[in-house]
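From the methods appendix. Each design record in this collection lists the tokenized structure first, followed by the designed amino acid sequence. Records were kept in a plain field format so they could be parsed without special tools. The example shown here is representative of the layout used throughout.

RECORD:
FOLD TOKENS (188 positions):
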């Protein structure tokens, strides 16, 4: 994956400022292209990260019961409008064959996947599939709830509306009570 091209972003930001009728050489805007490029480097950091790498290290712990990390805050950028959408992700899995991951790695995977131009559905599915691929657990369930600024500050303008997506794999796809347990723990 290529590194983020800061000078190219700076040029693009200058062009946008000109296109909206601004003067990029006025004092308040002089450093704006540089600031935006630096910000994009940060908010799109996930372009250079592979969420699966976080699951390379596993602990050989014999725990084949539910693990849930809930309320993981995330910020992402809607790929249609390049404005933020943000909320919480909840990641549950049931380990198998001693493949238990560090709890922070679940949050790191969310972070890496969110920091790209994204769709909420794709964040949800990509995190679930990374865990399936690397840990081969009994099941994975990822629930994401988010507010999309493209639906609040512009367009349909529905502030407060929330989108909830889920991805269920393995036992969670087959067993309603396993899904219900996770949902009730998320709500509690
Ligand atoms: N499925 C999905 N849609 C999204 C997500 N983020 C934004 N969108 C939607 O992407 C759609 C883009 O629709 P278009 O008709 O191409 O663009 P638009 O004219 O700007 O649409 P409006 O937002 O309705 O004004 C909109 O309906 C957005 O609400 C997301 O994460 N998942
Ligand atoms: Zn959007």
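DESIGN:
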């Amino acid at each position: 994956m290529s590194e983020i091209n800061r000078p190219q972003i700076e040029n693009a930001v200058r062009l946008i400022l000109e296109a909206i009728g601004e003067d990029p050489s006025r004092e308040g805007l002089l450093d704006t292209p540089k600031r935006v490029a630096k910000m994009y480097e940060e908010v799109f950091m996930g372009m250079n990260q592979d969420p699966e790498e976080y699951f390379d290290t596993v602990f050989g712990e014999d725990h084949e019961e539910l693990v849930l990390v809930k309320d993981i805050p995330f910020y992402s950028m809607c790929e249609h409008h390049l404005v933020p959408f943000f909320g919480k992700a909840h990641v549950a899995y049931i380990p198998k064959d001693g493949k238990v991951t560090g709890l922070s790695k679940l949050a790191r995977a969310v972070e890496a996947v969110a920091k790209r131009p994204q769709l909420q559905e794709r964040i949800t599915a990509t995190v679930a599939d990374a865990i399936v691929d690397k840990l081969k657990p009994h099941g994975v369930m990822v629930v994401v709830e988010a507010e999309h600024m493209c639906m609040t500050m512009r367009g349909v303008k529905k502030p407060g509306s929330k989108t909830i997506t889920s991805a269920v794999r393995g036992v969670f796809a087959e067993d309603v009570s396993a899904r219900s347990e996770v949902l009730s723990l998320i709500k509690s």
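APPENDIX NOTE: The helical segments are 6-19, 32-43, 103-114, 120-135, 149-152, 171-174, 176-187.
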